[in-house]
Specification:
With about 210 residues, the chain is an alpha/beta fold. The protein is built from eight helices and five strands. The chain binds P1-(5'-adenosyl)P5-(5'-thymidyl)pentaphosphate. P1-(5'-adenosyl)P5-(5'-thymidyl)pentaphosphate binds next to helix 1, helix 4, helix 6 and helix 8.
Length: about 210
């Protein structure tokens, strides 16, 4: 019995958390046991590293940043993802290793082949059955992400939101290049409609790629 692993990717404010939550709900309604996870996070080590990684007041060299994301990911894979898949659960993860390729590779300028080797070390053969890339205009995404941060009353400096628009444009290009290189695994959904429309579109993609969900 093996489950399915679905990762949701995209830049800030693309709607990943919204889609991940609603997709998980629909899969549960269809009778599946579903585990929702986020990266970095969803383990004690991962959540501690998330706090450190998002804190814009602490300087991190790009390679340090990449190692910390991979460390959080390895914990997630061995402690949560593999056991869940072995029990036949569906796992929906909000970001996975493509985020490191896009942010630390295309965004920070680290060597992409080196990062791919790091993903292999962190994840081994645990790779997504399907990756949905939510593609959005960086200006729209950043605006949405910042309004959420403001709405939550967060005043702390966010390492990645502070980088601004040209950083996000490079990352978007990176995600699209990764998707072009792996068309069987990654499906790009252009985020133009409201959240419900995007979720419907994601459900159609899941059924096309992984079979009917009910
Ligand atoms: N990172 C992460 C790396 O650099 N390398 C890595 O390897 C990894 C894993 C993580 C940060 O770490 C970086 C990337 C990130 O900067 P995070 O808090 O997890 O930090 O950041 P995000 O994933 O970017 O979280 P966001 O909340 O900003 O973006 P989401 O999840 O894409 O957006 P969501 O769903 O929260 O929606 C944002 C707002 O838009 C609305 C929602 O209601 C919400 O208000 N919305 C829509 N509005 C209109 N139309 C739609 N279709 C909408 N969909 C959502």
């Amino acid at each position: 019995m093996t489950g399915k692993l679905i990762s949701i990717e995209g830049i800030e404010g693309a709607g990943k958390s919204t889609v991940a939550g609603q997709l998980a709900d629909r899969l549960r309604e269809a009778g599946h046991s579903v585990l929702e996870l986020r990266e970095p996070g969803s383990t004690p080590v991962g959540e501690s590293l998330r706090t450190l990684l998002k804190d814009g007041t602490i300087h991190l060299a790009p390679l340090t940043e990449a190692f910390l994301f991979e460390a959080a990911r390895h914990e997630l894979v061995v402690r949560r993802i593999r056991p869940a898949l072995a029990e036949g659960q569906w796992v929906v993860v909000d970001r996975f290793y493509d985020s490191t390729t896009a942010y630390q590779g295309w965004g920070r300028g680290l060597d992409v082949e080196m990062l791919c080797r790091m993903h292999m070390d962190a994840c081994g053969e645990t790779t997504p059955d399907l990756t949905i890339l939510l593609d959005i205009d960086p200006a729209v995404g950043l605006d949405r992400a910042r309004s959420v941060t403001r709405g939550q009353g967060v005043t702390a400096r966010d390492r990645f939101e502070e980088e601004g628009i040209s950083f996000l444009k490079r990352i978007r290009e990176g995600f699209l290049a990764i998707a072009r290189a792996e068309p069987n695994r990654i499906v790009v959904i252009s985020v133009t409609g409201d959240a419900d429309e995007v979720v419907q579109c994601c459900l159609r993609v899941v059924e096309e790629k992984l079979g009917r969900i009910d």
